[in-house]
Amino acid sequence: MKASKHFKAFRILHDYFQTYEHVYAKLALRELRSRTEENRRELDAAEQYWNRHMEDVDFQIAKLAITQTREAVSLQASPAEIDDYIVRLPDIAIEAISAIEAISQLDLPPQPALTPAEIDEQTKKIWSWQLVQMGGGTINPPEESRSSHKIFGIGLSRTGTKSLTSALHILGFKVIHYPEDETTLRELSEGQYQLSLLEHFDGITDITVSAFYPQLDQLFPGSKFILTVRDKESWLTSLEKHWFNRPAFDATNQIEKEIHMEIRRLLRSAVYGCYEFNRERMSYVYDLHYKNTLDYFADRPDSLLVLNIGAGEGWEKLCPFLGLDPFDQPFPYIKKQSLLKTLLNAEAQVIDAAVSEASLSRLQSLRQSLFHMGRGI
């Protein structure tokens, strides 16, 4: 459970590529990770959705795993007791699943080994929004964007910008979260905000655009702006952890790493006015960004949506703002850096340069690294 940072760039495909025992174990671990107020709200929202679809065996297993884990591991359990439960979880899951009559009646055959090609095919059908809508299975962007207007997520980092990005993908909008390509770096450095990426994407989220909403509003009339927010004290704590061990200067000989560091320095300076975390300064920036944004759009409420994802706000506010019907499914809560960002940035870099065989190979290897983890919890 978060013991290593080596896996932070991977999003594991689940549910469709797991045994029922794995689904049980995954939800049991989620219950153990949901013992803070914010995480509990997210899990409660998911449970409300499950309760409306209890005819689905997957949701029965999810509910069972949550209930039994709460009974087995109290809120006062020691780290040693929690560790012991996790060690025994594979056997607990097998025993729990074998007792579910609905599953025993299915007489399921043993599962054959999955191949990367099979996972690739199914993933493109089920999670096309998560693996980037590239048009016809190629790395070429679609000729037409979904929207004639742009969408910008202008909340500060750690306010739910990844969750917002995923939600927009589900709705069919091709947006990119915190792009890190060389062209975007050069354009921002030159104060040129009619970003080339916006010829291929419906929008951008996170601090790449947070400070530049007045310019973007003028360059792209009719655009929609979404300000993600959260409890300020919670945000300060999260941002401090996020900036820890992420220095503004780091010697490197790799061109991608150098671009990443230059963008980090540029945006920290433009948005926060500092390179290192300072709680008093960050608190001031948060309040000022919120006030300035609301003041700017004060006479145009249809152009700005304030969204507190951590407090449970989601489809019921986002969809009407974009002129769409609400979704009857859980809102995506994305906390960790995912393959989604890696793939989108890879595409941005391919767009930025002539498409070479090496570029294609690098993008394919990113996908394969995910596919080989298809049976993880």
What does this molecule look like?
The protein is mainly alpha-helical. It folds into two domains: 20-104; 119-235 and 286-371, P-loop containing nucleotide triphosphate hydrolases (Rossmann fold, 3-Layer(aba) Sandwich). It has 16 helices and five strands. The chain has a five-stranded parallel sheet, sandwiched between helices. Strand 2 (175-177), helix 8 and strand 3 form a beta-alpha-beta unit. Helix 1 runs antiparallel to helix 4 and helix 15 runs antiparallel to helix 16 (357-371). Residues 1-16, 126-143, 336-343 and 354-377 have low confidence and may be disordered.
Describe the structure using short key phrases.
377 residues, mainly alpha, Rossmann fold, 2 domains, disordered N terminus, disordered C terminus
Write the layout of secondary structure elements.
Layout (H helix, E strand, L loop, with lengths): L19 H14 L3 H15 L5 H16 L6 H20 L2 H4 L11 H11 L24 E3 L7 H10 L4 E3 L4 H8 L13 E3 L1 H4 L2 H7 L4 E5 L3 H12 L11 H18 L6 H18 L7 E4 L7 H7 L17 H14 L4 H15 L6
Parallel strand pairs: 1-3, 1-4, 2-3, 4-5
Helix pairs in contact: 1-3, 1-4, 3-4, 8-12, 11-13, 15-16
User: What's the total count of β strands?
Assistant: 5
> How are the strands of the biggest sheet laid out side by side?
2-3-1-4-5
Beta-strand proportion: under 5%
Question: What is the CATH third-level topology name of the largest domain?
Answer: Rossmann fold
Q: What class would the helix/strand composition place it in?
A: mainly alpha
Second CATH tier, the architecture of the largest domain:
3-Layer(aba) Sandwich
Helical stretch tally: 16
Cα end-to-end separation: 11 Å
Q: Give the C-level CATH assignment of the largest domain.
A: Alpha Beta
The Cα radius of gyration reads 22 Å
Order of helices and strands: HHHHHHEHEHEHHEHHHEHHH
Oligomer: single chain
| Mean pLDDT over all positions | 79
The CATH H-level homologous superfamily of the largest domain: P-loop containing nucleotide triphosphate hydrolases
